[in-house]
């Protein structure tokens, strides 16, 4: 099999997962109750993958889920106190540095972003879909443009980028940035199309619909940069533990962590970019 053919060998599995998964997710997310339950379930799945990936103690799962249920006004204090307590326990008890690091990294990497995801899911179907469309299309742009430039012999991958992940390239980063920015820019027309097709009955206007085209491009570019940062963050962590994928739940995509990594930073800055 040629290099060009082999680098697209996962395409059928990716397309099959998308064609089956996207309609199911749309139906689930259309219900306020099911959307919230979905993200709590996703949090649970990511915690389970983190246990297998890092070798963290099973109590991490209970700790992360417990913190996600703390009321907003107490969350920052509860989260900071938990990190402080872990640091104290590392010094005072026979808790290995590796497990302490896994606890702390996992809470920052999973619990903190999913607190934001839970809040977003509770508040808005459109915001949930709009953010994921942007970051997932950023992922798609990075994948497609990166592979196309590699096939054409134009791949530029400096040493610092290879240290994060051997598959990443400058072309992929640019492609992800462009795809993500254009996705967010086109959201008003996307939602108008969904309403015309009667695939959504939610008529509440998005804040992005009142933004100028330039503002939407800027917001989309910032979300895409956050998506690239989140993806690179997970790549660095996986490289630290010597694995390629966080799991095998999603054929062609890896695990749940692999699918949501790009949203982990983006979801925390999303409300700020919309002026909330």
From TrEMBL:
Swiss-Prot/TrEMBL keywords: Cell membrane, Lipid biosynthesis, Lipid metabolism, Membrane, Nucleotidyltransferase, Phospholipid biosynthesis, Phospholipid metabolism, Transferase, Transmembrane, Transmembrane helix
The enzyme's E.C. designation: 2.7.7.41
Protein localization: Cell membrane
Pathway per the UniProt entry: Phospholipid metabolism; CDP-diacylglycerol biosynthesis; CDP-diacylglycerol from sn-glycerol 3-phosphate: step 3/3
Organism superkingdom: Eukaryota
Transmembrane regions listed in the UniProt entry: 12-29, 58-88, 170-191
Recorded GO CC terms: plasma membrane
GO molecular function, one term: phosphatidate cytidylyltransferase activity
Keyword Membrane: yes
Swiss-Prot/TrEMBL catalytic activity: a 1,2-diacyl-sn-glycero-3-phosphate + CTP + H(+) = a CDP-1,2-diacyl-sn-glycerol + diphosphate
InterPro entries: PC_trans
Listed GO biological process terms: CDP-diacylglycerol biosynthetic process
UniProt protein name: Phosphatidate cytidylyltransferase
Lineage start: Eukaryota, Sar, Stramenopiles, Ochrophyta, Bacillariophyta
């Amino acid at each position: 099999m040629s290099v060009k053919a082999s680098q697209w060998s996962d395409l059928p599995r990716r397309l099959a997962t998308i064609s089956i998964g996207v309609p199911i997710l749309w139906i689930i997310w259309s219900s306020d109750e099911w959307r919230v339950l979905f993200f709590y379930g996703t949090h649970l799945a990511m915690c389970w993958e983190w246990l297998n990936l890092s070798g963290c103690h099973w109590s991490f799962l209970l700790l992360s889920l417990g913190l996600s249920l703390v009321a907003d006004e107490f969350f920052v204090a509860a989260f900071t106190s938990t990190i402080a307590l872990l640091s104290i326990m590392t010094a005072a008890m026979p808790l290995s540095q590796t497990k302490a690091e896994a606890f702390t990294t996992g809470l920052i990497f999973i619990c903190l972003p999913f607190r934001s995801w839970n809040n977003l899911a509770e508040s808005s179907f459109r915001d949930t879909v709009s953010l994921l469309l942007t970051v997932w299309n950023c992922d798609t742009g990075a994948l497609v443009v990166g592979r196309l430039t590699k096939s054409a012999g134009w791949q530029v991958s400096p040493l610092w980028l290879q240290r994060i992940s051997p598959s990443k390239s400058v072309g992929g980063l640019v492609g992800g940035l462009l795809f993500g920015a254009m996705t967010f820019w086109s959201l008003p027309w996307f939602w108008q199309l969904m309403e015309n097709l009667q695939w959504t009955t939610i008529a509440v206007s998005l804040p992005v619909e009142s933004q100028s085209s330039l503002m939407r491009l800027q917001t989309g570019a910032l979300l895409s940069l956050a998506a690239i940062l989140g993806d690179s963050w997970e790549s660095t962590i996986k490289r630290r533990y010597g694995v390629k994928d966080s799991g095998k739940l999603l054929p062609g995509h890896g695990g749940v962590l692999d699918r949501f990594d790009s949203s982990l930073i983006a979801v925390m800055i999303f409300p700020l970019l919309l002026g909330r």
